[in-house]
Amino acid sequence: MAHGTEDLDHLIAMMAKLPGLGPRSARRAVLHMIKKRNLVLLPLADALQKVGSTVRECLNCANICTSDLCDICLSDKRATGQIAVVEDVADLWAMERSGVFKGRYHVLGGTLSALDAVGPDELRIPKLIDRIAAENVTEVIIALGATIDGLTTAHYIADQLPGVSVTSLAQGVPVGGELDYLDDGTITAALNARKAL
Amino acid sequence: MAHGTEDLDHLIAMMAKLPGLGPRSARRAVLHMIKKRNLVLLPLADALQKVGSTVRECLNCANICTSDLCDICLSDKRATGQIAVVEDVADLWAMERSGVFKGRYHVLGGTLSALDAVGPDELRIPKLIDRIAAENVTEVIIALGATIDGLTTAHYIADQLPGVSVTSLAQGVPVGGELDYLDDGTITAALNARKAL
């Protein structure tokens, strides 16, 4: 019992395992919560309980939701015939924050990876193929990270969808990016994909 | 609803307010918890609930505990006649991790601060004075931070305890510290407090 009570040790150990937290920040967060028991600790426990008991995967796109289908899959306004393929729900959220994409999503649940032994069967690619016909999809936008595994997965998906237009996010200089700080690969990609002003 | 459900938005907003976390790391932590619902999310909710319903302040030293008095105040082995005065429970935990101090603690709950309008009445100094007689205390070790407010508080406490030996933690070069990286104040303090080899 390093912190007075076993429950407290247990709580700190669990908080310390969350991504982005370590033992030190977990102790700090727990002390902060205890000091504000009614404002922070108990409401947070309730919120976790509520999310834990209601949240599940959308059966269609694997987004996080509280019913069989998520709001995006249920919305008529999002039935634009476009599906953005993302690796993870975090990437879906990032796309939604930009507010530009008006179609639907498909969360793969990972990328093909020879090193981690992730094959097509581990990803939600068959479900994506089913959705093409079911939702009259005309364009599949591959929005995976620009890594080797992301590119491999993009090419594999393009091969599996012969009748559909498959596009991918552009690569190039990020907004606000300075050339001096960019890596060679990004500059090469931006140069190769240069466009007329 | 930026993240699919209102409960989820609420949970992420609350996590983002914890010290050391921001919106981005809160999202990451929440997604991690949802992916490991039975291993992380629900146990964490239980642990928070349990700590929230059991934890309280030791009536004697203001340490965190689950009964009227904490284990340290209850232990006969810690009745050494020494009390270490710390600012916060986090500092008490830091002292306990070093494992060197065998006496009891007194958590002040802050330091005197003219800027933040913290006077002696806001701190637990009267209780400290009560404990001197009640626990046959012979030495009060001031273990406050080496800040202006910490030093002011140390001198104020020393003035309030005329019959007791009041000491404070030594100032100097930290273990593993290199002179080149130390500030002038620390080097001055270390030089003034030099000791014979």
UniProtKB/TrEMBL annotation, chains A, B:
Keywords per UniProt: DNA damage, DNA recombination, DNA repair, Metal-binding, Zinc, Zinc-finger
Positions of C4-type zinc fingers: 58-73
Top-level taxonomic group: Bacteria
Domain Toprim: 81-174
GO biological process terms, semicolon-separated: DNA recombination; DNA repair
Any GO MF annotation of the entry: DNA binding
Pfam entry (one): Toprim_4
InterPro entries per UniProt: DNA_Rcmb_RecR, Rcmb_RecR, TOPRIM_dom, TOPRIM_RecR
Primary role: May play a role in DNA repair. It seems to be involved in an RecBC-independent recombinational process of DNA repair. It may act with RecF and RecO.
Entry similarity comment: Belongs to the RecR family.
Protein name: Recombination protein RecR
